[in-house]
């Protein structure tokens, strides 16, 4: 069974490209373009890992992360924050809302793939 | 003297001896002038200010005893009083004393009438008000600084918003291009021939170039955005509190409030901006005094925590309503209606205190009950400093002093040496040698080539502590030497990409005439003159650590939450429950590597209410738990876990 990734970003082109790449690496990908959709999908689809942008319409990425991480049912799902926000305060907040990993854009596609694999293995 | 005095004031009914004594001993300058400006009487203080005896002054005019410009101004005032009959009261002027020290004086001049009501001269009283004027100026400056901080706060917010927008706009398309490019390059989107691949590599190289430029640009603007610079120095928290104690004791006494300070026995060393810490304490204490009724109590308590120190300001004041408590530190949010607020003068005090505490890497929080009182707490990171001078250096200095050779001493203390030593790609021995070389190079640039090092200067270096003894060196050279040293050390660490090293550079000189006792005292108090500083200080001995903990409260409820970091003395976690400071409880902790669950008694030592995210209504708290009475086997287990995770 391929692992399921929930990919959240409001940039359609990024979703398009990353989805293609992740699928080429044998992952199942579901995408969401805003925070509300991401939160709903996370609960409905129960993904193995979430790649989450921060500046999202409707619900902020930090909040999506916190809502999931403070919910007994979903707290085990690893969350990778993938964002253009690079300030130290944001990184700190990322760890405080429970994210497992914080990557900044522009990112090396290979680094993201490695992180996904690492976190999925850790969970097993 | 007595005679003349009697002559000029014959009709006064108070004992003339009493008046005479009064004029002789009052520190204010008192004088009488006739219509022509001639001094007919001066008291001792007047003459003493000029370095003369009263009889040498009497009969003279201001022009005879003061500089021309000043005398002319005084004559103008005299003329005004005697012509119009109107007194001049409390006129503040700047004056230079004969010993060259600038001070401020307040002058009062009153016309002197004869029996017929004709003006025959004037009396004058001049008082030294330097202290008062200085205090007023300080108060003004404090006000200006506070205004500036307010303005900076707003500017900073605008700037940081701007930066994050621009940053997002630049980074997002860049990352999309890079990612899409990799799809072609990896042949995910179909086969690529060698020629095409060559082109793609070039595209990618130039994207990387663009990426670097964007990063540099943003870094620069972020650094520029940090306008409020903290000027760190090594300081003792007790000294900071004691410096302001008298002022607040007086303030509290005026309202009949008892103010008590509780300190621990140990001296508490901090590495902070002293002015700012004083501002934090002042803001909290001013509030406490303002909102406490007479006969109330205020306690200032200092608690030592593992790697922090906690200051509490606890009052029996009016307290804060529960719904207001949450908002009290928020910027631009006011608890009381604006008009009322102005009347009470609260302003932005608490949000400034919060900003300053957080800039120092501390937490600030409040617990309060309406009608019962408020407890404000804040923490500051603590640094463990050893005595600055060890025995061998003291002995060496004493040797020189015994030979009547004055000694200048430069002390370099790398405050976070142990932390960055692990990150720097240089061995401990080479680091030590490099530092010694830097010192020698700089020394030679200022003092010339060294022939016999031991005779000219003397260096010890241990654990980031470095003391340089310079016998018989001039102050100018020493300054030049220390300036050069500062720059070289900074450059050295930057070369190794270490930009968060904290170095205290202190200069101290001992003259050969120091007495034994004086020298003994001075040895321990090396005056820290200069400090330069990197971007952020890392806390010691704590590691990032994500695991579950369960907190068991005394009322038998429990709370599960996740940790952020861990040390062998405590743990930091995020929770939705608001705890009470110093509440005792039990925690059970899942250790990830050693696969054990530890249950330990603990205490809530600090609380940080986290900023709300947009649209969020629940409060989250970061809490610092310290383990209590840790058993040896548990400590060992924690230490092992920490080592495995390092």
Polypeptide structure, described:
The complex is a heterodimer of chains A (124) and B (646). Chain A is of the alpha/beta class and 124 residues long. Chain A has one domain (4-117): 3-Layer(aba) Sandwich (Rossmann fold). Chain A has 5 helices and 5 strands; from the N terminus they run βαβαβαβαβα. Chain A has helices at 12-24, 35-45, 61-69, 88-96, 109-123; strands spanning 4-8, 28-32, 49-52, 79-83, 101-104. Chain A has a 5-stranded parallel beta sheet, with helices on both faces. Chain A is globular. The mean pLDDT of chain A is 91. Chain B has 646 residues and is an alpha+beta fold. Helices cover 43% and strands 26% of the residues of chain B. Chain B contains 20 helices and 24 strands. Chain B has a 6-stranded antiparallel β-barrel with strand order 19-20-21-24-23-22. In chain B, a hairpin with a 5-residue loop joins strand 19 and strand 20 (558-566). Chain B is extended. Chain B starts with a helix and ends with a helix. The model of chain B is unreliable at 1-6, 331-346, 384-388 and 514-540 (pLDDT under 50).
Topology readout:
The complex is a heterodimer of chains A (124) and B (646).
Chain A: E1 4-8, H1 12-24, E2 28-32, H2 35-45, E3 49-52, H3 61-69, E4 79-83, H4 88-96, E5 101-104, H5 109-123
Parallel strand pairs in A: 1-2, 1-3, 3-4, 4-5
Helix pairs in contact in A: 2-3
Chain B: H1 2-8, H2 16-25, E1 29-34, E2 39-42, H3 44-49, H4 54-57, H5 62-65, H6 68-84, E3 88-96, E4 102-113, E5 119-128, H7 130-185, H8 194-225, E6 233-236, H9 237-254, E7 258-262, E8 269-272, H10 274-290, E9 297-304, E10 308-315, H11 322-325, H12 338-344, H13 349-359, E11 364-369, E12 373-381, H14 391-402, E13 407-414, H15 417-423, H16 428-447, H17 453-456, E14 458-462, E15 465-471, H18 475-495, E16 503-510, H19 516-524, E17 528-532, E18 543-544, E19 548-552, E20 558-566, E21 570-575, E22 584-590, E23 597-609, E24 621-627, H20 632-645
Parallel strand pairs in B: 7-9
Antiparallel strand pairs in B: 1-2, 1-5, 3-4, 4-5, 6-8, 9-10, 10-12, 11-12, 13-15, 13-16, 14-15, 16-17, 18-20, 19-20, 19-22, 20-21, 21-24, 22-23, 23-24
